[in-house]
Amino acid sequence: VNAFATLVLATLASSIALASTAARAQGVGPDAPPPLPPPEQRPLVVAPAPRVDGEGTWVRREAPEAMWRFELGYRGNFVTDAGFGPFSTRDYLGQVSLAASRTLVVVGRFSFAPGIAWDFGESDATARGDKSSLQMSRLEVPLEGRVHFGRWGYVLVRAAPGVAFQSAEIDDASLSSPLTKTRWLFAGDVSGGYAFPIWTRPVRADHTPQIWAQADGGYGWVVAQRLDLTPDSSSGSGASGVDLGTLTMRGAFVRVAVAVSF
Amino acid sequence: VRALARFGGVAVAACVLGACGGRSPYWNAPANGVTSYGMADAVALVDDADHRVVLLTALAQQNLQTTAFTVGHHVTSTATSADGQRLFVLSSGDQPRRTAADEQPSLTVITVDPATFQATSKRYEMSVALPNLAIDPQKDWAVAYAGSNDSQSFVQNPNEIVIFDLDHDPSGSPAGANAPNGPNGPNGPNPASRTLQSFGGTPQRLTFTPVLELPASQRRLLVIESDIDVTLLDLTNSTLAKPPPEITVRLTSGMTSAQLQPAGVVVDGFDPTSTDDARIALRAVGDREIFTFTFGPPVAGSLNDFAPILNLTDVGGVPSDFAFVRTSAASSGLRVAALVPSTSSAVFVDPDSSVTTQVALPAPYSSLSLVTNVVNGTPAAGTDVALLWNAGIQSSSGVALWSLELAVGQPYFSVEVLGVTQPIQAVDDVSPPNQRLKVLETASASSFIVLDLGSSTASPLNTASQATLALAPDGERIWAFAQGGTALDQIPFANLNPVEVTTTQPIRAVYDVARPPAALGGDGGRSLIAIHDQGAVGATVFDALAPDTATSRVVPALVLEGP
Q: Is the separation of the CB atoms in A251 and A79 below 8 Å?
């Protein structure tokens, strides 16, 4: 997981650097006219029209931007379910978190951006001398509402229904192959947090990427599954499994991420 | 927004702080401390780290069913009853107790009903932690005592014993059939704690007598051997609110500083046709005398309704083994037969008159066991036949049958040396219907012998390495395996042809257990459960009646269930 996270982080960092370098090389700046997005990518923007205040001065309230957004982060899950005991000494599961979203609706300083997210993590331990491991992937559809504060970023509230893929494994010396169980399960998260732009482009309409730092926390939930692990066929037909009870991967989580938006 | 942010921060902090507790310590405890015990219809795995006993019962298709029972913390002693239906787990509890949640010492009794194959448990709380346990062969009593183990407390009373009345519920349990028992009932609390009177000795070994015909009535006694004397305790009345005191018999006169340490006790069984047949005999370490006890009416002022009468008899050498035997049908034929290897002889002692008769033996046999009911032919009525063995590593005398009918006065004609030349280290009894068989374990451990007392044949079976033997409780077969090896052999007593099977993991112990009958969802067969130490304790299960590696089943991680 760590190697994978490092690779993804390096890839994302290099892509951000390349993007900013390319933007500078193209000479984009305050004088360049902002290109319009293709018609099919235009979001529904409902921005208030410029109005005249009491003194007759024009005041401009900028609507939030519609954007593509890609984020890479680290998600820490705090799992207090007793069924997680065989697989972790800390009641904690760390995951690499990847997400992509697209703003679809902008209303005033509010926006709505659905997306897709994938979290992957693994926990290793020993359970009474047996090596044990649990891998979990979440594939979710985050539905994110945002309240924007201009150059100060935005508050986000996210609900993310989806599915989780759990793979539990116990390696007992009695058998030549490990005891395993894998299962797809319904999952969901709710969270809230804040995204702050740490590198912004000079011009609002510029397509140069923006870089964000983001943190959110919430509660994740996965449907309970019975951990009745069984040996694979290489152990022969005469091998029994083991029942470790029920595992419910639910609990609070925190996530920190960096994101790039276009 | 500010409020939302504040709420989010507080929520995240609470979640982080509240969720970092770590897992149960149970998962960190390695499983190599798990011990196994064979019962009649189950195998018990005592998992002290998880404070539980995992009971394995056999099912059809070589499956196992596990049932867990909670036991007290810090197991100090575990034993099974003679019939294998009960498991006793003695625990010292949490010492010292720092909180009200810390456990008191306790005894947990797990019983497997042979009719239903259902297991139940019962726990008796104790006020003091004691490390040793003695079990009544008749399943009525259990006694915890200090013995020679190191003290667990800063100050310990080594003469304190705790008596458990296993036929009654523990004090404080819900009222039922045993409701009269308890601190407010006619009986005292169960268990009952008492301190034995001491003349400087501490209890070392406990023996439960069968029902004895004492002068006043029938009683069961507890014979307590200390390191310098012997104590008789009226077991039948031991849980009364005011039990009678125990009787301590000193083995030395007090005129000398020398002390005698008891080395063993034998008790004559109850004879319903005799009104005064209660006899107990005792031998001492390094002493040439046999101590015999008869019982008479109590002395004036005694709270007991009997009084022991002690006789001392010199047998001419240090006896290595002894037993009550009958040399004739008449009650006067009751003798203590003592083996004296230093003179290659046996000595008969009349327990009433102390008259002795010496019988020369062809070898210095040091062990005997009675085989009266299983030898070929019918011995004369009321007389015993003994099997003699263990004549020393250098001896080639093997075993001999000693017909006590002819013994007195006709020594050489009474002893029949069987065709076994190896020195014998142990003799194992075989259960009915093959009780006529004895399994002889040789000193070299490279072979064992199946001795048929019915036909006087001795069939040797050679092993490639030192074999550990396990006799099936149904008396039909014996299992042999090498500790730490993977080879396992079934030897049916019907033909003594070994059937070899193998396991993938080294074997620590094997148990031949019954499967439930068809009416209880089983098939009425038997399973052989081979326990492996590796990992979280695994087992390989064979059909004990038709063992075959191809149809065996490996059941892994038997103690890996959630705490």
A: yes
Biggest distance spanned by C-alpha atoms of chain B: 111
- Alpha-carbon separation of residue A217 from A145, A163, B24, B166 (angstroms): 15, 19, 26, 58
Q: Does A242 touch chain B (CB under 8 A)?
A: yes
Alpha-carbon Rg for chain A in angstroms: 23
CB contact under 8 A, B554 and A238: yes
DSSP annotation of B327: B
Distance CA A155, CA A191 (A): 11
Contact A78 B551 (CB under 8 A): no
The pTM (predicted TM-score) of the whole model is 0.82
Q: In chain A, positions 198-227, which contact chain B (CB-CB < 8 Å)?
A: 216-219
- Arithmetic mean of pLDDT, B112-132: 92
Instruction: Supply the ipTM of this predicted assembly.
Output: 0.71
Beta-carbon-side half-sphere exposure of residue B388 (alpha carbons within 13 Å): 32
B259 burial level (CB within 10 Å; 0-12, 13-18, 19+)? middle
SS3 annotation, B286-322: CCCEEEEEEEECCCCCCCCCCEEEEEEEECCCCCCEE
Looking at chain B, the whole-number percentage of residues with pLDDT higher than 90 is: 47
CA gap A239, A231 in Å, rounded:
7
- Give the C-alpha distances (Å, rounded to integers) separating A140 from A1, A222, A255: 19, 12, 15
Number of A/B CB contacts below 8 angstroms equals: 156
- Note the pLDDT tens digit of each residue in A63-112: 567 789 999 999 999 998 999 999 999 899 999 999 999 999 999 899 99
Q: Is the dihedral of CA A14, A19, A24, A26 positive or negative?
A: positive
Over residues B407-426, the mean pLDDT reads 70
CA distance B305 to chain A (A): 56
Contact assignment for B23 to A175 by CB distance below 8 Å = no
Candidates B84, B94, B91, B72; CA nearest to B119 is B84
State the Cα–Cα distance between residues B410 and B408, nearest whole angstrom: 6
- Return the H-helix or E-strand segment holding B54: strand B52-58
Nearest Cα to Cα of residue A191 among B9, B555, B370, B87:
B9
What pLDDT shows up at residue A65? 72
Least confident of B178-187, B199-208, B411-420, B448-457: B178-187
- Alpha carbons B286 and A23: distance in angstroms, whole number: 103
Interface check B562 vs A, CB under 8 A: yes
Report pLDDT for A203.
Answer: 62
Give the CA distances from residue B250 to residues A25, B198, B223, B310, in Å, rounded to whole numbers and listed in that order: 109, 10, 13, 10
B247 closest CA partner among B193, B197, B293 = B197
pLDDT value for A78: 95
Q: Quick one: pLDDT at residue B204? A: 93
Taking residue A4's Cβ as centre, other Cβ atoms within 10 Å add up to 11
Summarize pLDDT for B201-254 with one digit per residue, the tens: 889 999 999 988 888 888 899 999 998 899 999 988 887 878 889 999 988 766
**Which residues of chain A are modeled with pLDDT < 50?**
1-5, 7-34, 36-37, 39-42, 45-61
Tell me, what DSSP letter sits at residue B394?
T
A115 neighbors A101 (Cβ within 8 angstroms): yes
Whether chain A has a CB inside 8 Å of the CB on B10: the answer is no
Tell me the pairing of strands A242-247 and A251-261. unpaired
